[in-house]
Specification:
- By secondary structure, the chain is of the alpha/beta class.
- It folds into two domains: about 100 residues, P-loop containing nucleotide triphosphate hydrolases (Rossmann fold, 3-Layer(aba) Sandwich); about 90 residues, P-loop containing nucleotide triphosphate hydrolases (Rossmann fold, 3-Layer(aba) Sandwich).
- The chain is built from nine helices and eight strands.
- The strands form two sheets. A five-stranded parallel beta sheet has the order 2-6-1-7-8, sandwiched between helices. A three-stranded antiparallel beta sheet has the order 3-4-5.
- The longest helix is centred in the middle third of the chain and has 17 residues.
- The chain is globular, with a radius of gyration of 17 Å.
C-alpha cells in the first residue's frame, strides 16, 4: 500500500513570517516547500512583461493560459520556473508584489495554479503557505496552522528588513499598508483570508523563529506525522 503524503498548510496575513518559517520547517522535516506566493508573483511578472492591463480581468484571464509555472529544487535552493526560465531573482520587486496582490483575486489566475499545487501535494510530503491553503487549496491537509502577529510587530519586522538593505522607509506608512492589505485580503470575494475551523492559531508576536518552527513541527506530530525511522 502506497504511503499517503502528509501535508502542512500555513495561512496568515502578510508579514507574519509564513514563508521563512515554512522553509525552515520543510528543511527540518525533509518536506517540499511549495511557495504559492512565488507562483503568483511569477504570474504577475508574466503579465507585466506581456504588457497586459492588470485591471482588465478578461485580458488577464486570457493571458494566464500561456504562463506555465513550476517549482523545482537545485542543490537545495528553490527555483521558480516561468515558461522554462528561472525567474527566482526577478519576482521579489515591489511592483511584482503589488501586481500579484491585485491579480490573485481573479478566478482564472487561481484556477490556473490550483491544479499544479494540488497534484504536488497529492504525491509528496509538502508544506504550503499562503492566504487560503487550509480553507481552499488543501482543505484535507493533516496539519493546518494560522500564523499571525500584530500589525505593529509585522511592520517593525518589515522596517528592520528594509533599513538593513539601506532602503529609506517610514514605520507608520508600513504599518498602514499592512492594515490595508489585511483588510483587502480578508474581504476579497474569492478565497478570503480566514482561519480554517480545524487550524491551530499561532501568534508569533512574542515568539522567536525557532519557537514558531518547533510549534509547527509539534502540531504536525500531534496530527499524525510519523518521524522517519
Amino acid at each position: 500500500m502506497e504511503k499517503q503524503a502528509f501535508n502542512i498548510a500555513i495561512d496568515g496575513p502578510a508579514g507574519a513570517g509564513k514563508s521563512t518559517i515554512a522553509k525552515m520547517v520543510a528543511k527540518k522535516l525533509n518536506f517540499i516547500y511549495v511557495d504559492t506566493g512565488a507562483m503568483y508573483r511569477a504570474i504577475a511578472l508574466y503579465l507585466l512583461r506581456d504588457g497586459v492591463d492588470t485591471a482588465n480581468e478578461a485580458a488577464v484571464s486570457e493571458a494566464v493560459k500561456n504562463a506555465d509555472i513550476t517549482i523545482r529544487y537545485q542543490d537545495g535552493a528553490q527555483q521558480v520556473i516561468l515558461n522554462g526560465e528561472d525567474v527566482s531573482g526577478l519576482i521579489r520587486t515591489e511592483e511584482v508584489g503589488n501586481t500579484a496582490s491585485a491579480t490573485s483575486v481573479y478566478p482564472a489566475v487561481r484556477a490556473h495554479l490550483l491544479e499544479l499545487q494540488r497534484s504536488l501535494a497529492a504525491s509528496q510530503n509538502v508544506i504550503m503557505d499562503g492566504r487560503d491553503i487550509g480553507t481552499c487549496i488543501l482543505p484535507d491537509a493533516q496539519a493546518k496552522i494560522y500564523l499571525t502577529a500584530s500589525s505593529r510587530v509585522r511592520a517593525l519586522r518589515r522596517y528592520k528588513e528594509l533599513t538593513e538593505k539601506g532602503t529609506m522607509c517610514n514605520l507608520e506608512e508600513i504599518e498602514q499598508d499592512i492594515i490595508e492589505r489585511d483588510h483587502r485580503d480578508m474581504t476579497r470575494e474569492i478565497a478570503p483570508l480566514k482561519q480554517a475551523e480545524d487550524a491551530v492559531l499561532l501568534d508569533s508576536s512574542e515568539m522567536t523563529i525557532d519557537q514558531v518552527v518547533q510549534a509547527i513541527i509539534d502540531t504536525a506530530k500531534a496530527h499524525g506525522l510519523k518521524e522517519e525511522a
